[in-house]
Amino acid sequence: MNDIIHTPVLLKEVLEIFNPQPGGRYIDATVNGGGHAREILDRIGEEGMLLGIDRDGALIHRLKNKFADQKNLIAVCSSYAEMDECAVLYGFGAVNGILFDLGFSSYHVDQSARGFSFLRDEPLDMRYNPEKTRLNARMIVNSWSQKELARIGKEYGEERFANKIAAAIVSDRARTPINSTFDLVRIIRSAIPTPLQHGKLHPATKMFQALRIAVNDELGELKIGLEKGIDLLVSRGKMIVISFHSLEDAIVKEIFRKKEKEGIVRLITKKPLIAVSEETRINPRARSAKLRALIKI
After folding, report:
1. How does DSSP classify residue 19?
2. Over the stretch 114-136, which tens digit does the pLDDT of each residue have?
């Protein structure tokens, strides 16, 4: 079995803000490969506990094998939208810190074979948890209306050619079902101007993002998870969210400011923190990362 490939983003900043102490209780709401979790566990010691949550059962299985000797880690296949239920079930009534490292992992792109990457010819799926989620990307592109396809392209992918792409999808699927990532890439290429088909940004990037968000209800889940997470924090407990695109960051910013106005939290970061050039050179994923943090009053 290949180990999980995961380089934690903005790790130094996360540890400085949390300042985990022995005996602390933390939730890694997007535990993934355990990069951040490992460093937190080292600092809270055997007296502390960390609840690691991920929607992908395959990632949780790998994580349990990787951390087999770690007695103070509880790894759970669930959504952070169900964080409160997980916390009650595993005795995390109040926690010192909660981390959201948003975005999908290298595992999903390189190893899952679920169609997350437009560079691999795979079935159009894009579900983080195939066992719990019925809707997949193939169902969306083959059954949703042209209007709805254009809507998610605009709203979730910020794709300026969403109308043309949606029309091309509907036209193509009338002849034969769209079943693979390469089928969809071909259709997207056909719908955008020729000069943009070979630019720095792959032409399918935005539409693939839109489909992934729609399949997994990522933005809806994030709103619920942030609200529930803030409720779980002890007084002086901290929440950190690392986002990777403007849609996520806008939601985080809105909810954090709303809670501040309600007198529930104080913002630690007035403006988002970003990775320094040294980190982005080592870990390109960090280039688009924005970190926001709060402390509960």
Report:
1. -
2. 888 998 899 999 998 888 889 99
